[in-house]
Amino acid sequence: MALKEVVSQRVLNDIIGRLQKSKEWKVLVLDHLSTRIISSCCRMHEIMEKGITIVEALEIDREPLPHLEAIYIMLPTEKNIQKLISDFKRENEPTNLYKGIHIFFLQKCPPGIIPQLSQSEAAKRIYTLQEVNMAFLPYESRVFTLDFSDAFENYFCNVTIKKEDLFETISDQLATVCAMLGEYPIIRAWKDGNGKCADLASKLQEKLDSFKAEKPDLGKGAKQTSEFIILDRGFDVTTPVLHEVTFQCMVYDLLKPNKDIYKFTTVGGDGNERSKDVILDENDELWKKLRHDHIADVSRDVSVRIKEFSKKKKLGDPNNPEISVKALARQIRIAPQYQKELGQYSLHLNLARECMKRYQSGIGDLCAVEQKLALGTDEQGDPIPDALTLLNPFIFGRKYNVYDKIRLQILYILQKKGLTLDEFTTMVQQSEIPSQERSVIFNLMHLGVSIINGERVKEGRFLERKLREETTYTDARWSPVLRDILEYVAEGQLDDQYCPYIRNKPRGSSMMSSSVGVSGATSVRKQYDWIKSSDKKSKTPRVSSVPSAGAPRDLPTIFVFIVGGVTYSEIRTVYQMAEQFKNYDFLIGSTHIITPSEFLGEVRRLPPFMRM
């Protein structure tokens, strides 16, 4: 089952649905994260069908509805708890905000929260108090994020959050992913130069051990043990810098949809141009099919589909098989009953042509040289003789913008394994990189990347890359490092020195019980006897835990989580691996999703690694 479907069922059936009563409406109160979660996988009509009359934000002041019960779904943070308590501490209001409340925490509740609730006026109104293990954002069927872009600067530089607090937050959220899916995976961490991945992995292990102590059957039933790989963005800085030529990557890099919403101009059935907003997600079957294809294949595929649809439905002029937005608009006027299908074709025709327009205006040439720099070889597989000669026509002059030049220079420095300070200074000066933008390049040293020779950088382990002789487009030869990692894991050959186990290396699923070691784990829940309360008059809130979403799945899961952002190239890779290895399920997660410009912007905002 797709990750979004699992979360949708949890919300609609296990939370809202089980409280539904005939002819009785309820209010749904959400914090920021739960709003993002529910809007990503549930539609408003589905929520209303479960007896919800209004959805409100926890953070804002709300009108009293004392005749209705309310369902609160939120993180158990101090800020959220104080807001909830204040909802029932209304000195100037004679009535309560709601008749009663059902509270669902997205993750395990810290020890201090329950006493606060039990001593508040809200305690008298609490009918349900449960943990639902859902503190993550399902983005696609195999993708989740923590909706936590601030993690980048705090992970690499501890700008506003202490390392311990950051790891506590991330591990809490990751544990809910595993708990919801009924998984208790073996955890491994990339051996980065600072040991941060291992520290985070150890913290996650603690969280999962606690879940396992409370629910011993967690993780049982799979054919073999699942694995959870933790990486940080320093494991591969080439992939987030490259221009990509697959559909989804190009759309997000070049056309820049805002929160997955793409704005474009189309021609309506009346022949007039109008602006249209569309959401790029898996509800669009054509987007779902084409998103990982090369842009050349997408352009051809969309045109063929439109021609075949027009022919099948007997639309258009067979003597003038024009494929354009205006032609589609004319067809919509002729056959308005096909407006949905033709509108979908119009969207993807627009996306493909906008991408191709940029490709042909210079991005294609950049792609060619980027591939040579990233791989160190030309299209025939021969070593490139002089990387600087390749670079010069692109970084000198003003045809390309500053960030395109920076992307090329990063690839050149990676290929050279670092430059002297004099070489670096000469290159950025002659290519007219503004001084305030040069930190984008040397701040990569915060990620453990060698940029300036002689500067002390704590580099992580490097993975031996696989040799590939696949037939592909010459502008798409690079394969993300993640592909090698996942293939090695699925084949049981990932180097322990590159990605050590947090516990002893298991010899098989039978070793699982001997390597767990959860006897010392303690449960906050046991301290407060957290069970479902059927006594609505009880002043002491007691909490229970919603079961995981069904029995453990038939296939073991390979999880990978990247602190500091995952690229659309790496997302595509996970889907490719799921097709390649049918005996595994694959899921990828990250603190957030990044495009190349977003990645470079985050690197730029780090404190300067050095002064020039």
Write a structural description.
With 612 residues, the protein is of the alpha/beta class. Helix content is 41%, strand content 14%. It is built from 22 helices and 16 strands. The strands form four sheets. Strands 2-1-3-4-5-12 form a six-stranded parallel beta sheet. Strands 6-7-15-13-9-8 form a six-stranded mixed beta sheet, with helices on both faces. Helix 11 runs antiparallel to helix 13. About 5% of the residues have low confidence.
Task: Outline the low-pLDDT stretches.
Answer: 509-539
User: For the residues shown, what is the average pLDDT?
Assistant: 87
Shape: globular
Based on secondary structure, the structural category is alpha/beta
Percent in helix: 40-55%
Taking Cα atoms only, what radius of gyration do you get, to the nearest Å?
27 Å
Question: What's the number of helices?
Answer: 22
User: Can you summarize the main beta sheet?
Assistant: 6 strands, parallel
Total strands: the figure is 16
CA-to-CA gap between the ends?
Answer: 53 Å
Strand content: 5-15%
Q: In which order are the strands of the major sheet placed?
A: 2-1-3-4-5-12
Which key terms come to mind for this protein?
612 residues; six-stranded mixed sheet; alpha/beta; six-stranded parallel sheet; 41% helix
